[in-house]
Amino acid sequence: MNKIIKNTFVENFVENHGREPRVSITTFGCQMNEHDSEIVMGLLNERGYTQIDDRDAADVAILNTCSVRENADKRFFGTLGQLKKLKEKNPSFVTCVCGCMMQQQHIIDKLKTSYPWVDVIVGTHNIHTLPDLIDNLIEEKQRQMEILPEAVEIIEELPSQRLFKHKALVNIMYGCNNFCTYCIVPYTRGRERSRAPEHIVQEIRKLVEDGVVEVMLLGQNVNSYRGYGEDGVWEFPRLLEEINQIEGLERIRFMTSHPKDMSDDLISSFRKLNKLSKYVHLPVQAGSDRVLKKMNRRYKVSDYLALIDKLRKTVPEITISTDIIVGFPGETEEDFEGTLALVERVRYDSAFTFLYSIRKDTPAEKFREQVEESIKHERFNRLVDAVNKISAEKNREYVGRTFSVLVDGFSKTSNMALTGRTDGFKLINFPVPNGLDGEKLIGKVLDVEVTEAKTFSLEGKLV
Ligand code: SAH
Ligand code: SF4
Ligand code: F3S
After folding, report:
1. Cβ neighbours of residue 378 closer than 8 Å, sequence gap 6 or more
2. Given a cut of 70, is residue 114 above it in pLDDT?
3. pLDDT tens, 257-272?
4. Cα of 364 to ligand 3 centre, how many Å?
5. Residue 214: which H helix or E strand, with range?
6. How far apart are CA 169 and CA 42, in angstroms?
7. Residue 390 neighbours by CB under 8 Å, 6+ apart
8. Ligand 1 shell residues, CB under 6 Å
């Protein structure tokens, strides 16, 4: 346990600087990582820190790391280098690092030997102790580090500083038991733990009272949710059913589902539950049985295709996205053509494509026959071309149709246009109609007619 020190960082800072400390957080990872950042900011906010986006103007900088691919690791160390310069200019500047990379010994060793100026290091299982660790810095005047090998308990009722007023990320479970051979997540996030259904429902009720209309239920593998309720075990469809009844909530989404746990019950939830978005992210990873087996995905191509058919038969308008890895060890041209064939057969609305990246201490690290970089890239480009062509074609089918869109905010490029998502998670931009205040439309569900299709988004007009 951390010591609770009376002389907190904030009090000390205010005394010396005449203002509250400014904190910036940079998130490198997935939505769970994003939500962890929201919680850290919620906790710091309670203690009197002010959040700012500009890292250069911060007094405390937090880097919330991801380790899923080498690229994420590299970006982290690059950013850490930039922070060193800030520290040289201002020795009282505080640098904190947290998230998935911190659960790996080789990273900790590297931080210890080469980054002595990092002040606070905290792992994924006890991220809520970060504010205490910053406080401890004042008394102990030395680096604070706390990493737990496994989660001890699920901490409830943590505050969260949401990115959006009208939508929220809600964790329903933590960790992963699947051990896909390429993946680091089971090592950085530990074993699966589901939150109690009552806690989840209560959290969402509170969020709705606070103006939230859409929740994204989060977990590495949400469809293996098993929460212990007062009346026994709840599986995922039952949890969805209960959430669907929350008055004032308009949309429910979830991420990510594993194909091996996509039950008939869950598929029929898409039909039965009026608030459940007709959208599913169902990572396939590869279109070759041989590769899937080596990945330890526990389904065959035919199982996956049967699931897609069942989903489309039950919910014809469902939109589907996926994740695909190219260049897994031992992937042959024939295996890769299987992936292309699968993409052509399923016709995804969108697909996230990744070059296989060796992760230290995973089983696939030891697999011989790593695919040559040039071949990986060549296959990757062919896959991206196929995926994008289909996305564009699918988007064109939307032109002329009207969808209800939850407005998220102003578009990235203009404050005369708004951006939002359809029920099927398609990104759509549309101009603010003359005479209307765009700001007031944020968080509303509006009918928007699609006027133009692009590869990754739609253009529309309010009807
Ligand atoms: N739990 C989710 C996704 C977790 S990570 C699932 O099982 O689908 C998100 C995506 O990153 C994965 O779906 C996979 O496509 C990709 N990924 C994970 N490890 C990777 C690696 N070592 N190299 C390349 N991509 C990887
Ligand atoms: Fe990684 Fe597989 Fe778990 Fe997803 S299901 S987090 S890819 S081990
Ligand atoms: Fe990255 Fe950890 Fe998420 S490794 S993808 S931040 S669970």
Report:
1. none
2. yes
3. 999 999 999 999 999 9
4. 18
5. strand 214-218
6. 13
7. 343, 344, 347, 348
8. 68-69, 182-183, 185, 220-221, 256, 258, 283, 285, 323, 325, 354, 356-357, 359
